[in-house]
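Example record for the data management plan.
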Amino acid sequence: MALKAKTTQEFVPIKEIRQGVIILRDDSLRAVVMASSLNFALKSTDEQQSIIFQFQNFLNSLDFPVQIFMQSRKLDIRPYIALLEGRLKEQVNDLMKIQTREYIEFVKNFTENSNIMTKTFFVVVPYMAPAIKGGVAGVLGKKDPNQASEKHLLEFEEHRSQLEQRVSVVTQGLVRCGIRTVQLGTEEIVELFYKIFNPGDTEKPIALS
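Corresponding structural encoding:
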């Protein structure tokens, strides 16, 4: 008997992404915080000790797990090249045209011959709602679908509020270490997962308008 091929979506444990919150298939929630890097080696000894102390305090202050994720990718210079080529078409000065064209060739050759990588850091903050008597089936089993839908919406907002409190704890702790943070919204999360599951797309040419 032939086996039915599974789609990629069946291997992804994500049920939905709503209002910047990832809802997994087990109904637990995740928020993603992007964090800036910190050049630790360039800091003085006192600054390094202070950063270590603050990071230690941050970890000790957590009463929930977090996941620190680093994404390393080859620098995609194509959008910058497309921008330069657009500026080249707008130039009316012949000398500026020559200089811009030479600069474009320099950037292309430099990036092709050098393995330039970009690193992005993320902190994944989880929240698992406490078990509710009757479970989801108890809500969906109600005769009034509007009542069930409203109850789910209220529960989601309550759980999202709890998740946001955890995100606040994480961002405040990282800021004390000198790290800038920003919480990803729905579009940014979708783009992040798309790039994770479609790494080859960065090698495809982009369409220029």
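Summary line stored alongside the record: Helices lie at 45-61, 78-90, 94-113, 135-140, 145-176, 186-197.
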